[in-house]
Specification:
The complex is a heterodimer of chains A (314) and B (237).
Chain A lengths: L2 E4 L9 H10 L6 E7 L3 H8 L4 E8 L8 H15 L3 E5 L2 H13 L4 E5 L1 E4 L2 E6 L4 E7 L4 E5 L14 E4 L9 E8 L12 E5 L6 H15 L2 E4 L1 H5 L20 E5 L5 H4 L7 E6 L6 H4 L2 E4 L2 H11 L4
Parallel strand pairs in A: 1-2, 1-4, 2-3, 3-10, 4-9, 5-9, 12-13, 12-14, 14-15, 15-16
Antiparallel strand pairs in A: 6-7, 7-8
Helix pairs in contact in A: 3-4, 5-9
Chain B lengths: L23 H15 L7 E6 L3 H11 L3 E6 L6 H15 L3 E5 L10 H9 L3 E11 L2 E8 L2 E8 L2 E5 L11 H7 L4 E4 L1 H4 L7 E7 L13 H11 L5
Parallel strand pairs in B: 1-2, 2-8, 3-7, 4-7
Antiparallel strand pairs in B: 4-5, 5-6
Helix pairs in contact in B: 2-5, 3-4
The chains are: A alpha/beta (314), B alpha/beta (237).
Chain lengths: 314, 237
């Protein structure tokens, strides 16, 4: 009985989140099918077919899937699921996955499992609760399991697959809502949730100009993605998509550099699985030092430029 | 924030003697609804909660912030998101609101499901993770926080909105309003009366604390930091 994975993509190619979801799905019994629903999404479909572990790609192409609403994506998943006999419907726990999958679950009258970090068996999963301060092992009794996967908990599937790509007719567009605009951050930097190194700034930076002046050169030297605490985003230093934390993005890079971040529990929830944590803060009592591998107590306005100078330019 | 403690027998998180309060995202929802009323867009704000009788306290807080009426769907059973969504759908069918505003996630189970499930059960459009909501001429225009930035969605009413952190800053209930809230109507319903089966679908087998991360390492200066990152942690080329 196959498993369906909803691909996260930008039509031209798949986002790395898809590979983590496929990796998770591959631990379940059954063939893994990937659904690429988009507009002029042949590139994404082709890439999905080459992901290791994928048995088949279902490619749906329609104009109303160019900037899809939850209603349209859910309708598409349900249409495919109706004939596919899928035991598990899986998506990465990205903004899209979180928006769409509960809607799918309710239409199927089944529970939804959010943000799983472990798979014990086909019906038993581990997921974080209370901002990751506890982990619950839960067993689903429903015939179809609808799941979103915490991408940092499953190593991305590589390439090497050669699955067939099957064109599938699009479900009729669902009315009621439409996307009328987008304001997306444009950046040459690595994407935050998949980056090997993250440089993250908090309220200690004081304002957005300081954030940029101090952290951009550091991120350049480290080829890092840029992140921020909730406080920094609320204060307007950076846009909302930089937020790392319980209700923002969950990251687990090889190196996380926290600059001027005190280390509230809600922030730790988003980065405590990083392999190496560096903290720079002038307050020796800041909670961040309790989880930092290398804590430097000092004035970030001195320390960060020194650190930039000590690192070779790329 | 209270430190979370897992029960020694692994059956769950310790909640006895812990002070409960309104979920922060729901404070934002109530605030947004009250603002819509203050702008003359909403004619009435009804606050709803599902759970034990103690939830009445939280509903009184909502009334003190400015809701007109409250409804408690009372149940001591474990209410999982699908059950909550079904109870809310039943309440919606009785009340016929044009807009339902919910917090995007509860900070205990971190599920982030009820709003989306409610919209599905009602077959209404949804706009989740809202950072701005405008309502005019039977439409809601919502700015949503998405992974890459912001997205604007336009929906015909009736619709469901879930709130994100930056939608608004909730007001504090003033003492006069807390007193007035005691007299506002608070009705109690129950799942059986609403015809909803709330039996849980997920069985929690165990709850554990994650392994504690060893921290507290210190470096004296940038030179030591760089050296350790390169030679010890090996995260620098």
């Amino acid at each position: 009985m196959p498993i369906l994975v909803l691909a996260e993509h930008d039509h031209a190619s798949c986002r790395s989140a898809t590979r983590h979801a496929v990796a998770a799905a591959s631990k379940l019994p059954g063939d893994v099918h990937v659904l690429v629903a988009g507009h002029d999404a042949g590139g994404a479909a082709k890439e999905a077919a080459a992901i290791a572990g994928v048995a088949k790609v279902l490619h749906v192409d329609a104009a109303h899937l160019a900037q899809p609403t939850a209603e349209n994506l859910a309708a598409q998943i349900l249409a495919v699921a109706a004939t596919g006999g899928y035991t598990h419907l899986v998506a990465p726990a990205t903004g899209t996955g979180k928006n769409v999958m509960p809607r799918v679950a309710a239409k199927l009258d089944v529970a939804q499992l959010s943000d799983i970090t472990g798979i014990e068996s086909a019906d038993t999963f581990v997921r974080p609760i209370y901002a990751g301060n506890a982990f619950a092992t839960v067993q689903s009794k429903d015939a179809v399991k609808v799941i979103t996967v915490r991408t940092t908990a499953f190593e991305a599937a590589g390439s090497g697959g050669s699955a067939a790509v099957e064109p599938v007719a699009a479900a009729a567009p669902a009315g009621g809502a439409k996307v009328t605009g987008q304001e997306l951050t444009k950046s040459e930097r690595p994407e935050l949730t998949g980056a090997r190194v993250v440089v993250s700034g908090g309220r200690g930076l004081g304002n957005g100009e300081n954030y940029r002046k101090l952290l951009e050169p550091l991120a350049d030297r480290l080829n890092a993605a840029l992140g921020a605490s909730r406080a920094a985003v609320d204060a307007g230093y950076v846009p909302n998509d930089y937020q790392v934390g319980q209700t923002g993005k969950i990251v687990a890079p090889d190196l996380y550099v926290a600059v001027g971040i005190s280390g509230a529990i809600q922030h730790l929830a988003g980065m405590k699985d990083s392999k190496v944590i560096v903290a720079i803060n002038k307050d020796p009592e800041a909670p961040i030092f309790q989880i930092a591998d290398y804590g430097l107590v000092g004035d970030l306005f001195d320390v960060v430029p020194q650190l930039v100078d000590a690192l070779p330019p790329r | 924030m209270v430190k979370v403690r897992v029960k020694a027998d692994g059956s769950g998180v310790e909640t006895a003697n812990v002070k409960m309060s309104m979920n922060p995202f729901d404070e934002i929802s109530v605030e947004e609804a009250v603002r819509l009323k203050e702008k003359g867009i909403a004619s009435e704000v009804v606050a709803v909660s599902c759970g034990a009788a103690a939830c009445q306290e939280t509903l009184r807080t909502a009334l003190a912030i400015g809701a007109d009426r409250a409804i408690l769907v009372q149940s001591d059973a474990e209410l999982q998101p699908l059950a909550v969504a079904k109870l809310l759908a039943a309440v919606v069918k009785r009340e016929s609101p044009q807009l339902v505003i919910l917090g995007k996630q509860a900070i205990d189970d971190d599920a982030n499901q009820v709003g989306q499930m409610l919209a599905a059960l009602l077959d209404w459009p949804q706009a989740t993770f809202a950072s701005k909501v405008e309502v005019a001429e039977g439409k809601a225009t919502v700015k949503r926080e998405v992974d890459g930035g912001l997205e604007t969605v336009e929906m015909a009413l009736p619709a469901v909105v879930t709130t994100d952190l930056r939608l608004n800053e909730p007001r504090y209930a003033t003492l006069p309003n807390i007193m007035k809230a005691k007299k506002k109507p608070l009705d109690t319903l129950d799942p059986a009366g609403l015809g909803v089966d709330v039996a849980p679908r997920l069985a929690t087998l165990k709850v554990v604390e994650p392994p504690k991360r060893k921290g507290g390492g210190r470096v004296a200066d940038v030179a030591e930091l760089v050296s350790k990152l390169r030679n010890e942690a090996k995260v620098l080329p």
